[in-house]
Write a sequence for this structure.
């Protein structure tokens, strides 16, 4: 069975933040929480690139590895979800995640952490699909409705892809071949500042 | 005789002290790394073909 994956094409992302807005609207996330964010490298300079980042639904998820209460679980499609009833808001997952995906709403004064919130690949959480409880705690369950994550579906430039990893890889492979088989951002030129 | 008396005192002291503890001895030992929460009903659904069709229809380049 294939795994659900996100991929953001930095050659196409125009930093419009449409994915962030779509996510926040769809899931009605609390103020101050962004399940998805757009990171821009070399902002304002020549060669500026942006990528949209959220939970990458890792195969060997470090958040799940460090969670002291084992609140994470995996769907057969490889979507990493968590149970807010078990989460204690310790923040270990935030330290472990290389993408800054786990978010913590402030629930009281003095910056006390609430339960962790993160991208669910629009797949909700443990409560019954699209129940009031699921929507309130985890947002809309689009996967149960036969839909893919809204961030990817709303992307105007189709930079952000989300779905079956094999198909996502296939779409991207075709794009790279159309561009002549090169990707300027991640190669030696970028890493070692080689002049062309 | 003296030793028996001391043993009896220690025995009753131990019983008395153990009565002060209200901690339950009835607990379950969980293995680490195992999810302990509710089962997600999503897991039983078979939506893969629909999702793949939607991905090919909506996200491939025109």
């Amino acid at each position: 069975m294939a795994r659900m994956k996100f991929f953001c094409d930095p050659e196409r992302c125009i930093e419009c933040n449409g994915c962030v807005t779509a996510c926040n609207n769809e899931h009605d996330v609390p103020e101050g929480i962004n399940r998805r964010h757009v990171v821009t490298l070399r902002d304002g300079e020549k060669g500026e690139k942006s990528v949209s980042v959220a939970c990458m639904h890792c195969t060997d998820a470090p958040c799940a590895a460090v969670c002291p209460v084992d609140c994470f679980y995996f769907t057969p499609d490889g979507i990493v979800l968590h149970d807010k009833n078990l989460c204690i808001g310790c923040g270990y997952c935030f330290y472990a995640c290389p993408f800054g995906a786990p978010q913590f709403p402030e629930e009281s004064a003095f910056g006390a952490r609430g339960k962790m919130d993160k991208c669910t690949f629009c797949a909700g959480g443990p409560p019954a699909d699209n129940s009031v409880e699921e929507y309130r705690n985890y947002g809309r369950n689009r996967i149960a409705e036969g839909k893919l994550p809204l961030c990817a579906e709303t992307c105007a430039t189709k930079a952000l892809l989300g779905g079956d990893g094999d198909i996502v890889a296939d779409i991207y492979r075709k794009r790279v071949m159309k561009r002549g088989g090169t990707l300027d951002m991640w190669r030696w030129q970028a890493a070692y500042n080689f002049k062309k | 005789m003296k030793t028996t008396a001391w043993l009896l005192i220690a025995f009753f002291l131990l019983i008395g002290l153990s009565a002060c503890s209200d901690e339950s001895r009835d607990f379950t030992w969980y293995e680490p790394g195992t999810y302990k929460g509710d089962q997600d009903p999503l897991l039983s659904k078979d939506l893969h073909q629909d999702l793949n069709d939607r991905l090919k229809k909506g996200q491939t380049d025109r």
